[in-house]
Amino acid sequence: MSISVLENVAIVLCRPKYAGNVGSAARGAMNMGIERLVVVGGKDLNPQEMKQMSTHFAAPLIDNIVYCETVEEALADFGFAVGTTARLGNARGPALSPREAAQKVAAAIENNDCALLFGPEDTGLTNEELRLCHAVASIPSSPRFRSLNLSQAVMIMCYEVFLAAGGERKRFMPQLATSSELEGMYGQISELLQRIGFLNPENPEYWMMHLRRLLARTELQSKEVKIIRGICRQLAWYAENKKT
User: Fold this and answer.
1) pTM, to two decimals
2) Alpha-carbon distance values, 63 to 55, 58, 75, 115, 162 (Å)
3) Is residue 68 within 8 Å of 39, Cβ to Cβ?
4) DSSP bridge pairs for 59
5) What is the dihedral angle through the alpha carbons of 50, 55, 58, 59, rounded to the nearest 10 degrees?
6) What is the CATH number of domain 179-243?
7) How far, CA to CA in Å, does 118 sit from each of 22, 74, 138?
8) Higher pLDDT, 228 or 237
9) Which CATH code for domain 3-166?
10) 19-39: per-residue pLDDT in tens?
11) Deepest in the core among 22, 53, 84, 180, taking most CB within 10 A?
């Protein structure tokens, strides 16, 4: 696989707290051939401080940062997104190693824009933000000191993607549905399942979390999302007319 496909990969930093970390992350990404940087929030961070840490070589990444207000907006057009977390648990889903996650990115990269999502330095990504991702990755570290600097985490993930993209492709992954298409589908499924009494309206996300994981494993394409949404519309129509 040609390294040029790394043009389809972007680093997405969610609410970074320190300009220096953004600059260092940009430098690490550039070292590994990744030249797209998206920042959620953070418009008040000092560009000069970012460039000081990015060095002149990676300064174009800082100049071309795409700023978004929310993670949902940032991921909307990506066909495959990997969220990173140090905190594990059932609500966060099964976590891949960086190498496993990179192999999935390498399989998707030729036909899909891919995002590597990183949370704030102090709190990391929320459960809701991780639900927007197709896969979750966690970087192993010593139990005596688990915390990684944001730029270190970015460098490790970029390195693994760089290796995976440059080697023999494990399998082919077609063009996938974008995050915005999937979120529209999940919203429609949730609304339908609440209407027919399958989901508890007080806590619909409990079962939706499991449905998200199930459907994420199928790697849905746009046309398949449209089919599912069409089925939901038909079921909703039938449920409404059955009452009358």
Assistant:
1) 0.75
2) 12, 9, 20, 19, 23
3) yes
4) none
5) 50
6) 1.10.8.590
7) 11, 12, 11
8) 228
9) 3.40.1280.10
10) 999 999 999 999 999 999 999
11) 22
